[in-house]
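Box S2. Input/output pair 1.
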Amino acid sequence: MDYIVKYLSSEALFTELESKLTDEFEQLALTCHTCPEKISAIDVAEHSLTNFAATLTRMEKRIQEMFLSMKQKRNMYAPIGKLCDELISKILEDYVYEQHSWMIENDLKGYQLWIPSAFSVCTKWRSVAINTPALWTKIPPLPSKRKVFELFRDRSRSMPLDVVLQIHDDGNQSKSPDVAHGDALREIASRISSLKVSSPEEVMAEFFQTHVGRAEFSSLAILDVSTVFWEEESSFSFNAPAIHTLIWRGLLPPHSLMHPHRLVNLSYTSYSLRSSRILDILSEMPSLEQLSVWSCEENRPIPTVARAKVSLQRLKRLCVRNMYLHEMVHLLHHLIIPPSADIELVLMEMCDEMSMEEFSHLAGPYMPTCHSLEIAKAKPDRCESFESANDIEELFANRHGRGICLTLLSHVRGRIRLQWFRFLSHGYYAQVEGFNTSKLLELLASYPNILTRIDWTHQSGVPLTTSSLITAFSSWPLITHIRIQAHEDDFERFLTALEDTPDIICPALTILDCCGIRFSSVRMASFLEFRKDRGVPIHEIIMTRGFAEGGVDEFIHLVPTVSFIEPEVEPEAKEVDTGSEGEGDTDEDEDEDD
């Protein structure tokens, strides 16, 4: 390859050119005797030089083409060039993503579609990208440039499309050929499988009535609508026979769908929702399997009235957030759902205060069939696949620990989860020190039950009372497993409650999990000895390694099994079998806790 460097050296080329020009001018000086002759000769030389410059330009272009050819040949031998078209297509498909942003104040929905530069990493990749219809199914937000719309429409071939539509009442905007989104929507209506629509103005129903009419969205499976207002008098209905998921933010009109009985998933968010209106809507959707209702309360509560019940025999999950308590109870009372359905109720106390008694009444009807009860701090919701993550993340931001959560498990029905958040009336979070969970235990204990396990986190700031603990746990004779998280002083009150006489509290209790609690080993030994003397011994203690003040020697002989959890990391519990009377090799674990 040295000859290429030699002959393509720009310095060598220009040195040779300069030498030839110098020789020609010296020859001109000898042969041309008059000035006009010399000027004419120089003009000829300049013309030749201009032609040479043009030649250099053509050479530069050819060199660039040669460079491109060399890169293509190199890519053929590089690992990236050996990838099959199917794998390249999969890589590109994974790199295309969409991003949504919300402005809660005026319900504007922002959307961006990102096309990665990998689409043009080389000629082969670009060719694969252009000829892979699946990469072009996410249509850029309408309204958009006509050429951009046609590019995605044509390259996606006949595949189902994901479309984002932003409707604005902006004078003559719809008359522009570049942003004729109404015509574009009708043009691809039969291919749309997912449609996201947003509008901050009161024009959505009118827009669809004008530009879509009764046109069939034959492939539409997911409809996501965000609107401030939908004209009640509008006669428009989405003609979508294949629809299975509806996400609606705003006031949902009663007849917004021609085929509501086809719906499987419904997520409905609106202001001041009333249970009667929700029931009217649900009466047309008997095939629902997942239902999420979120009310952004503004108005004062109004009385509810009796009405016919609504049957949702296929329902698998029901989630109701932020309705007034009496509205929520009215809704649940008028819904007929399978026992296997999971139920989640989220109460956000913003206007009226709710008592612990009222909260316990929500759980009461489910207690008789519940075998496991968990009382913990409330946690931010995790959105389901048919819900809007933006709604949940925005409205539940930074609320961890500002409420209480009950989880009830049963062998004969679905999971019941109840959350209660507290707020100040002006919208800021109340600085709640904690919920009186001992009182809640006492209230829940008043219901018939078959509880065998309790997971209980007592929030700091509210001291436990031994009497309330005795009242509660005396009503749960079948409990075999208790997991408690509390302050050290509250934990000792709990142990005292389990030592009450003459009746034995929780006689079936065999497992005590006190991970995360520092406790006195002498006090634990006293408790274990009491239980053993009464003929109801504890079989297993689960604790955090190193949290027994004084070491485990004080009590390890009183319990057959001690399971240690490492602090913070919390790997799987490591069991130490001490034998029925504490006999056996336990030196290693005792040394670590001394």
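Box S3. Input/output pair 2.
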Amino acid sequence: MKKFLLLALFATQIFAFSASKFVNDARSQIGVTLNYDPSYERLAYPMGDVDIKKGVCTDVVIRALRHQDMDLQRLVLKDLSRNFASYPKNGA
């Protein structure tokens, strides 16, 4: 029973995602993120970001997710460290 309760609590946190809030948070960057700039920048960790006035489409997605307390940078690095062998190699 305890395992079930822990699983239910964990699942609640995972699925506590609002698609409409995500879309609204992404749209809130219209007129703010003004310049498409794909140049490389070293980012802080965690919660690193380029200047909100510039970026690429993924920066808009990452910022919108952060409004829902999801740090994609941290989640990807965590997954990478746990499942490194599952990631493609260079040239694959």
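Caption for Box S3: The longest strand covers residues 35-36. Residues 34 and 53 are 5 Å apart (CA to CA).
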